[in-house]
Amino acid sequence: MPAPTLLPEENFMTINKPVALVTGASSGIGEAIAVKLVAAGYKVYGTSRRGVQSDQRPFAMLALDVTEDASVEHAVRELLQLEGRIDLLVNNAGFGLAPAAAEESSIEQAKAVFDTNFMGVVRMTRAVVPHMRRQGSGRIINIGSILGVVAVPYVALYVASKHAVDGYSQALDHELRTHGIRVTVIEPGYTRTSFESNSLEADAKLDLYEDIRVKVTKVVNQAMATAESADVVADVVLKAARAERPKLRYTAGKAAAQLQWMRRFAPAGILDTGIRKAMQLA
Description:
Transmembrane segments: 140-160
Strand order of the largest sheet: 3-2-1-4-5-6-9
Protein name: Oxidoreductase
Helix content: 40-55%
Strand content: 5-15%
Number of domains: 1
Structural class: alpha/beta
Family: Belongs to the short-chain dehydrogenases/reductases (SDR) family.
Distance between the termini: 74 Å
Shape: globular
Number of helices: 9
Order of helices and strands: EHEEHEHHEHEEHEHEHH
Radius of gyration: 19 Å
CATH class: Alpha Beta
Keywords: Membrane, Oxidoreductase, Transmembrane, Transmembrane helix
Organism: Pseudomonas agronomica
């Protein structure tokens, strides 16, 4: 007797649950994404540099440092041994720098930002894609930022790293479609998490930027106080993961949508003026 045909929304409640891997899932956006995917019927594995933690999360945790090749390979191999497949990879792990001028970060600090925010995405993708290709299917969702397409000052390295994620995602989606794999980048705006409090201070500060650092930090803190929750981003990730024909880009949150609209439709001069006004720059 043939198996019954399931409606698309029922596919996520079958015994053979799709397997998702979410990096940086110990808190914030990553944790919200993992929880949302579990509720939608995925078998979810989160990752954290601090290793496996025994807590009450509804998903398993794997030790993984996206800046180390061996750690990435080991975690992916461990997951494949447990589940035999990976259907969804969410590249979320990343960090930022506290507001500062571009020249106030050393080359070493710039490398560290890119090693996590961009090269971490590359490492994870290279580790997972061969298995998705053999499956003939898969989804890769990269957590970028609206700042990756609408640049603002005094977070230049973060902006650049997320711009790199955006470009990489565009190219990768073209490459992998013929193998049944789709790539999407999510572009949140300010999101209410502990992200800002965990941002690194610039390591080569200059006195001439002290006043503007204080001013921009105040602007960022005010924006964070009214920012939307991580669940807003998680909802968009789930929408992209389940879309039959996923878009390349999804904004997450009202502020991100407004900036994207201005980038597409407003004259460049108006966008430029708006950014400087929002950042309280002369």
